[in-house]
Write a structure and sequence with these properties.
By secondary structure, the chain is α/β, with parallel strands linked by helices. The chain contains ten helices and six strands, in the order αααβαβββββαααααα.
């Protein structure tokens, strides 16, 4: 009942949203991933991105002036991974904080001797458990198929991962998916990536993926949408698991 009421209210707000199809097209036209979505899929992507705007609040950091076009671009990038999953997969958090460039949060941690340290290093994006997503606009604009880079998809993949026992590389799998096959595919890809790094061989993923399983899932996710053939050619089993999870086959487009 709650979802029915929310969808009814959302549809009315969507009809009143002052965004034309031309504005949306203009805000996303130079993102190469958009070529993959045509016809009915493109229409669904546009509507999903607008619904994203209705559910999430954009906040400016570092003096940035956040424009409608910037919001449309980020909303569309965020909508791509959940096009076949639904916007409810992003429930439980409400805001995106956008900085002009890399931001430097202060993070405190306590070592084994009880000493508290403050760690300050620049970040391009961050996703908090049950909190906001923080992004650098420069990095949003740096989305690149050659580098298999997309900070929006990366951080939103963390949000999907957090739906099941925290950011551990194991988001909630759909009915019919085999958790053992998921774990096996990711483990095999992890071990192969480690070997390639040691051998200084060409890398299908950014080696940052080896930070932890959560980062591996997020880096694999941004690569799956930005440069899908990299994963399909290197690790077909991993590609198949991501295809089953996201219910999309970007390498075939």
């Amino acid at each position: 009942m709650f979802n029915l009421i929310r969808n009814w209210r959302e549809k009315r707000r969507l009809q009143a949203l002052p965004v034309t199809p031309a504005q949306w097209e203009s805000a996303t036209a130079d993102w190469h991933v958009m070529r993959r979505y045509q016809g009915e899929a493109r229409e669904r992507l546009r509507e999903l991105s607008l619904r994203f705007l209705l559910r999430k609040r954009f906040e400016a950091g570092g003096g940035l002036m956040v424009t409608d076009a910037m919001q449309l671009r980020i909303a569309t990038m965020a909508a791509v991974p959940i096009l076949e999953l639904g916007l409810d997969w992003y429930d439980g958090w409400y805001s995106i904080i956008l900085y002009p460039a890399e931001f430097v949060p202060t993070q405190e941690y306590e070592d084994d001797f009880g000493v508290v340290h403050r760690d300050r290093h620049p970040l391009s994006g961050e996703a908090w458990l049950q909190g906001p997503v923080i992004l650098s606009w420069n990095d949003v604009m740096a989305a690149d198929p050659d580098a298999a880079y997309n900070v929006v998809i990366h951080e939103l993949a963390h949000k999907l991962d957090m739906l099941s026992d925290g950011p551990n590389g194991s988001p909630p799998l759909h009915r019919g998916m085999d958790p053992e096959a998921w774990t096996r595919a990711f483990t095999d890809a992890w071990e192969d990536l480690e070997a390639r790094v040691e051998e200084e061989a060409p890398l299908p993923l950014d080696p940052y993926a080896l930070e932890n399983p959560g980062e591996f899932f997020s880096v694999a996710s941004e690569t799956f949408f930005e440069s899908p053939r990299r994963i399909r050619d290197a690790w077909p089993d991993l590609y198949e698991q991501l295809r089953l999870f996201y219910r999309q086959d970007p390498a075939a487009a």
